[in-house]
Write a structure and sequence with these properties.
single chain, globular, two-stranded antiparallel ribbon, alpha+beta, Arc Repressor Mutant, subunit A, 248 residues, 2 domains
């Protein structure tokens, strides 16, 4: 069927967008990283109304000439100093949040993104507040979820944690939060930090070894310790899945 370009142009010329309700779009980010054996998220303290002074996910309005992902990268850099274009990071779209009353200013739809930063498991990238953020800091995820947050950001943060925790059962996504080459202990630390639990080292190693690629190299032995094998991970499914311990 031939496209009716003339008829389509006539339709577009007569189309009146202002007859429809205006809806703004924002991009928000759930940023996770592991430091000192705990899972952290990058949050800002809002410098202006609404929710002035409350914790919030970094993010902001999508510009007229950018995609939601482009806005997410820009807003994160502006509000926290984290430049995802120059960091080892995995980014994926988390979900769209569209409740009519989620923002008291106007009708705002948020496209949330999940960002996993690779670290050595000890130190975290430095944050610096900018634009309309009064502060930008790393917060322990499992602790900050007990505190109030601006907008529906607590629910978005919880969804991000649930997404990551669930995917870690059946994929090697946890390795995205580590250097390219890592030890089994480093990988187990990520699992324990995200799942907020303690895992038996022997059982974890036995289940995960077939899912990883052994580099044949080892770390330098620490004082009084033995060198540890170094592994890499490709994107693959874990079978059978490594089940998260159930609590409660």
């Amino acid at each position: 069927m031939t496209r009716d370009t003339k008829g389509e142009q006539e339709f577009l010329d007569a189309y009146k967008p202002k007859e429809y309700p205006a809806i703004a779009v924002t991009a928000d980010l759930v940023v996770f990283a592991v430091g000192s054996g705990a899972l952290y998220t990058a949050l800002v303290r809002r410098g202006g109304h609404p929710f002035k002074g409350e914790l919030a996910l970094p993010g902001g309005f999508v510009g007229s000439r950018e995609s939601a992902e482009q806005a997410a990268y820009r807003e994160l850099a502006e509000e926290t100093g984290l430049d995802l274009g120059h960091l080892p990071v995995h980014v994926e779209q988390l979900a769209t949040y569209s409740h009519p009353e989620r923002d008291p200013r106007m009708r705002v739809v948020s496209v949330a993104h999940l960002a996993l930063l690779a670290t050595d498991g000890h130190s975290l990238p430095e944050l610096s507040a900018g634009t309309d953020a009064a502060a930008a800091e790393w917060h322990p995820v499992h602790r900050v979820l007990e505190e109030p947050m601006a907008f529906d950001h607590a629910a978005i943060l919880r969804d991000g944690l649930d997404r990551l925790a669930g995917k870690m059962e059946y994929t090697t996504v946890a390795a995205r939060m580590l250097p390219r080459e890592f030890t089994m202990t480093q990988l187990r630390t990520v699992y324990e930090a995200v799942w907020n639990t303690t895992l038996a080292a022997g059982n974890f190693t036995r289940k995960m070894t077939p899912q990883l690629d052994d580099t044949g190299r080892k770390t330098q032995a620490a004082a009084g310790g033995a060198p540890a094998s170094l592994f890499t991970a490709s994107d693959r499914h874990i079978h059978p899945p490594l089940a998260k311990p159930r609590t409660g």
